[in-house]
Amino acid sequence: MQKINKILSQIKPLNQQIMKNVSEHVDQLTKPIGALGRIEEMAIQLAGITGKERPSVKKPAIVVCAGDHGIVSEGVSAYPQEVTKLMIQNFIVGRAAINVLGNQIGATVTVVDVGVNGEVDHPSLVKKKVKNGTNNFFTEDAMSETEAVQAIEAGMEVAQNLIQQGHELIIIGEMGIGNTTASSALIAAYTKAAVQDVVGRGTGLNTDEHQHKIAIIEEALRRRNVNDASPLQVLARVGGLEIAAMTGILLQATANRTPVIVDGLISTAAALVAYEMCPMIKDYLIISHQSVEPGQKAVFEYLNKNPLLSLDLRLGEGTGAALAYPLLDAATRILTEMATFADLGIEKNNEATESTV
Question: Please, where are the H alpha helices in 175-257?
């Protein structure tokens, strides 16, 4: 926990002076004030995150954290656990959806085994395995606090390596059968939302299976006694190893003032864990999209955050975040490539440019 505490102490507020300077610059660009809407907001946020008046998000890196979940033995998933290993192989050979979208935006894809149940052997796979999947948190804690810390630190190490390699932005994604169950449990535990309001159909459960999943999570939360637990204890009791690793990526990147794009339900749950450990991180969060999983909405309301896109996605892997990346790239480009009224030799009248240029 010493490494985590050190990183937590290094996380500072957004640079307000830089944000003020960038906001003033944005208002001088050749457009009506506010005409680029949330693109302008992102430009200002990215400036505050990086501490730079001209932030850059070049050389994006996608990280897919993989881990299995013992809770699948309770019949909460439509797919068997073996699918996790098969999908990792698909990521490695570059044929998964995230590889396609990563290629589109020029991003590298790093796959991290932090808790897969079994071995996948390939030179490009980053092996940070803590254990062969979590325990069944219906009958026992998903992992020990020590194992949760190890998984968080694994994510921290991956993030630091990518930052040292010159990646200016990180996209977090995941793979792990059963992870919507763990994510829903975490969201209900932290936000106090009703379980039935945060549990979706995951990979395609029918109505009876969906109700069974809700009942399993409700009983598991009662058994794990999460109400009086610390953020780390909640993660250890009902979370996932890949969720912990993504939490570590968020913490490490934030301490380094490197932007991270959060993907769907599972990485949003990781963002929630990071927030519970360090509330200051809320201002750094960039949520890419709202998936069809209802649990995300509870987090958005809890953190007062809005996603960038709504495309009815429910794949994970970082796909929604990869689709949102061009918006952040656009936000940085308006700061460096767009002319100001002064550049055109025009004295700007703020009232006149509120609706017309």
Answer: 179-191, 195-198, 207-224, 231-238, 241-255
Size of the chain, expressed as the number of residues it contains = 357
> Angle CA(100)–CA(80)–CA(125) in degrees, nearest 5?
45
Domains, the chain, ranges and CATH? 2-55+334-354 (1.10.1610.10), 60-328 (3.40.50.10210)
Copy the structure tokens of residue 34: 């506010």
Are residues 178 and 269 in contact, defined by beta-carbon separation less than 8 angstroms? no
User: What residues are paired with 169 via a beta bridge?
Assistant: 60
Active site residues: 317
Largest CA distance in the chain: 71
Q: Do residues 341 and 30 touch, judged by C-beta distance below 8 A?
A: yes
**Sheet hosting strand 260-262, strand order edge to edge:** 126-127, 108-115, 60-67, 169-175, 260-262, 286-287
Q: Which amino acid is at 68?
A: D
Sign of CA pseudo-dihedral 312, 65, 261, 238: positive
Terminal Cα-to-Cα distance of the chain (whole angstroms): 54
How many Å apart are CA 152 and CA 138, to the nearest integer?
Answer: 22
Q: What is the mean pLDDT of each run of 10 residues along the chain (357 residues)?
A: 96 98 98 97 98 98 98 92 94 97 98 96 96 98 98 98 98 96 98 96 86 97 96 98 98 98 98 98 98 96 97 96 98 97 82 45
Separation between Cα atoms, residue 86 and residue 78, nearest integer Å: 16
